[in-house]
Amino acid sequence: RNGNYGQSHSVFYTSNDRGVSWSLDTKLAATASFQKSIALSPTTQTLVSIGSTDGTNWTTYRKANGDGWLLAETYAFTPAAWPVKPAKIVCTAAGVFYAVGSYRNSGTTRWYVRRSIDDGVTWTDFDTYIHAGAGNAEALGVAVDGTNLWVVGYGINTDYYWVVRKWDGTSWSIEDSFTLPTTQGVYLKANSVLRASDGSIYVAGEYTKSNGYKAWLVRKKAANSSVWLTVDEFTPAEYQNAAALTISENSEGRIFVAGVIETESGNLKGGVRALMTEGWKTVDSVINYGMGIPHKIAPCFENHMCVLGVTMNSNWISQVYFRPVSYTHLRAHETVLD
To answer: Rounded to two decimals, what is the model's pTM?
Structure first.
């Protein structure tokens, strides 16, 4: 796992006992370095992390061949950009890395995708989409399957659009450009995308309802279909917020979404919703001293799904949490939480 320490240094931690205990792997010497996402090459076991320095440069670190973490690239935009916001990185089965995010210069926020075919050593621009030819856009999530690449986020052209773009190995296309009447909701954001084992594409995100509160949203396109459907739209109550942040699948093909759910007292808890036999259900939540915000959900060991996020300690200082959700736990909570 990676993250930041003291609002200054990026840190990398490792665990060799299924997340029970963690040890510091590296604290990067560079100050104001904020690493955001990490991926592993299945062909070489190289780790690559993306982030930014002072919000002005796109930075990439690598760990390969038993070496420590080394700076691979500091990329400066021309004209100068701020803020630079790397979001997610993935690696294909063939060892190709894709990193997505955004940067802002010349008054426009630009959707940004970079690619590396040499284990993260060198990078090239792969997509610089501008919504509707002139509007702001931001890439927030990415998934790969073979030569197919899905990138999700949002675009602005008067209204906010939930955007899904696909690279099929030859060209880019818009898979979904979804918006709502302003009387129903605004500020749509697609945060995370999953290519499921059955060929379906799931996208998790959020929008702001007409009453000003955020709603959790999941959309799906079935395999061999061109139709997108909203399959989960959730808020704990009319005047409480919720937002879906990250999506994944376990070895049995069950879909999990993690995000934030506001409590009655106005705090944010980290919630997990799963597609159960009777529909979508909230199956897990965590909150400590008023906060729980998940950043990643993924399969880990023995059919567990593991959630990585941020909570508070007794001194009201933010801290990382790592939480496995077991199959036994899932079945025990199938119907009771909502």
So the answer is: 0.92
